[in-house]
Design brief:
Helices cover 32% and strands 20% of the residues. It has a single domain (2-336), classed as DD-peptidase/beta-lactamase superfamily (Beta-lactamase). The mean pLDDT is 96. Helix 1 packs antiparallel against helix 10 and helix 2 (54-67) crosses helix 7 (167-179). The two termini are 21 Å apart. The chain has helices at residues 2-12, 54-67, 92-97, 109-117, 125-133, 149-163, 167-179, 228-240, 246-252, 320-332; strands at residues 14-23, 26-37, 40-41, 47-49, 185-186, 200-201, 208-209, 224-227, 267-269, 274-276, 279-283, 286-287, 290-297, 302-310.
């Protein structure tokens, strides 16, 4: 694996790569190359933002509440937000599977300009939803698939109401503590525990450290931090469904989206995560200078986790960690070579 990491570090001009492989919960190899910030080497113990891996925590919480009878996947959005477009047709399951038709608010240029103008601004969930629903529906609810963080902001607000506590508190009590993920947290503040893997971006037209920008623009969709070891355990928990019933686990990664939009049997979206030729993708974040791949192959009980940061001249819009993961996965399991789409 180290050879692939080193080659990718040079090919993509990466600042750092943190990586690990576990089999049946036991570490096979963990390591880090590059530097966390000038003068300090990256290490496997560092904390970093995990981006949309947050959404598998969110859908795991959802399915736990479903199992307890507190909410149903067939419940309609109108139960909580009756004024939203097509709220009577959109179900909780559609939000979790990104088949509602709501626009991906992160693609709104006015919103992006506002984020870049003040990257320390505290955004509210209502503001994020307002951006998403200000655009026309992309398709009729349930008829296609297009990833949209608007779905997960709405789902987070529903879980807050149904669970009677903040989503951060529920995730801590129901997921992080039972799994012993003591280095993982959800927060809308810019705080990241030390030691910290810094991230860098050219989003505003110049190369800068964005480690302490506000993550509130990604509330419920990317506002968690963790470590390599915790992510290895999370990959296994999601891949095996250890916190869910057999039914709950099957729902989280059911192939119901196959044939919708660009999705196929070799790569399809479940609830907050995807499946790529048998590999469960518990997260593939690209957030504020980080790219990641949090994955598990049930047939071989293999977990692979990779996170990267990039230098100033790194190519734009390349999911570095998934690109590395495709190579590593093919090496570890040639018969189940991952098919994660990368440019």
């Amino acid at each position: 694996m180290l050879g692939i990491v080193r080659q990718s570090e040079e090919k993509y001009d990466l600042r750092s790569v943190i990586f690990g492989i576990w089999q049946a919960g036991k570490p096979v190899v963990t390591g880090a190359v590059g530097n966390a910030y000038p003068g300090f080497d990256a290490t496997p113990a560092m904390h970093f933002r995990i981006g949309n891996t947050t959404e598998t925590f969110e859908t795991t919480l959802l399915l736990q509440l479903v199992q307890q009878g507190k909410i149903r996947l067939t419940d309609h959005l109108s139960r909580w937000f009756p004024a939203l477009p097509d709220a009577k047709q959109i179900t909780v399951a559609m939000l979790a599977r990104s088949t509602s038709g709501y626009y991906h608010y992160v693609q709104d240029q006015t919103f992006l300009d506002a984020v870049h103008a003040n990257p320390f601004r505290l955004w509210t969930p209502q503001e994020l939803v307002d951006v998403g629903v200000s655009h026309p529906m992309q398709f009729a609810p349930g008829t296609s698939w297009s990833f949209s963080d608007t779905n997960f902001v709405l789902l987070g607000e529903i879980l807050r109401i149904v669970g009677g506590k903040s989503v951060a508190t529920q995730i801590s009590q129901r997921i992080l503590r039972p799994l012993g993920l003591h280095a993982t947290q959800m927060t809308t503040t810019a705080y990241t525990p030390t030691p910290t893997l810094h991230a860098y971006t050219t989003e505003r037209g110049f190369y800068e450290d964005d480690t302490y920008w506000s993550p509130s623009w990604a509330t419920y969709t990317g506002n968690m931090t963790s470590t390599l070891d915790d992510m290895g355990r999370w990959a296994q928990a999601v891949g095996t469904g250890s916190l869910l019933s057999r039914w709950g686990h099957s729902q989280q990664f059911a192939p119901v989206s196959v044939g919708l939009g660009p999705l196929t049997s070799s790569f399809y979206y479940g609830m907050g995560g995807a499946v790529a030729n048998g590999w469960v993708i518990a997260g593939a974040p690209g957030l504020e200078g980080f790219t990641g791949a949090v994955t598990y192959l049930p047939s071989k009980k293999l977990a692979v986790v990779i996170f990267t940061t990039a230098k100033a001249n790194a190519p734009q819009n390349v999911p570095f960690a998934p690109a590395i993961f495709n190579q590593v996965g093919a090496l570890l399991a040639p018969d189940s070579a991952p098919t994660f789409p990368v440019k």
